Amino acid sequence: MSATGEQAQTGVLEVDGLCTDYGPVRAVADVTLSVEPGRVTAVLGANGAGKTTLLRTISCLVPAREGRVRLGERELLGSAVEDVVRRGVAHVPEGRGVIGELTTEENLRLGGLWRGAPAEDLDEVYELLPALRERRRQPASSLSGGERQMLSIGRALVARPSVLLLDEPSLGLAPLISARIMELVRRLANERQLAVLLVEQNARSALAIADRGVVLNLGRVVADADASELADDEDMRQAYLGF
Predict the structure, then answer these.
(1) What are phi and psi of 218, to 5 degrees?
(2) Which residues of 32-71 are buried (b: 16+ CB within 10 A; e: fewer)?
(3) What pTM was computed for the model?
(4) Taking a C-beta distance cutoff of 8 angstroms, is the pair 43, 240 a contact?
(5) Which of 139, 158, 171, 198 could form a disulfide with 112 if both were Cys (CB 3.0 to 4.6 A apart)?
(6) CATH code of the domain covering residue 108
(7) Structural domain harbouring 65
């Protein structure tokens, strides 16, 4: 379907019975979860648990084998990636992915190319992330790791999403910077009423700011509970969460 005139959807992100295969390997196996506006759901588990594949399937970067993904009344699976963005889903992949040769502001503008983002959209991001305003004319290659992560998130926000998919936003960052990124994620859910699906290797920091936690093991959900309940479950922490 053409995305011309497409309106971003709002509502609950619902994943139902999702399965994704890589050749003979089932990377995501019958995953069901939901994320409401204004809430953060943390997806946790060891390397290879299927966390990144889950996000990539929701955003249609890889095809699902089975299942459904709905945002509000709209089915997302089978859509072109650009249509998923237009419908309100922004995906910030692992590794930050900024274009080093472009300035900070040019990177931000890429997030709104499809909708002709006006200058006030950039101003909103600069107000939220003032460090980016100070560096808006600098090449992205000159930014620190934390600043590049903020730039990746800011670029996603320019698209005015209702759902934010974040893949390992604290990866490789110093603890203080990681804590600031986690605080930002919480603020975005609270202040912008975003539905946030957060993949994190650092389970302790993710559960500290999340409303709900989903634990994956070999592509399957082994726990889905309030974040505080998971954080207090010693058996779950030792078996799957590493703290």
Answers:
(1) 50, 40
(2) ebbbebebbbbbbbbeebbbbbbbbbbbbebebeebebbb
(3) 0.93
(4) no
(5) 158
(6) 3.40.50.300
(7) 13-241
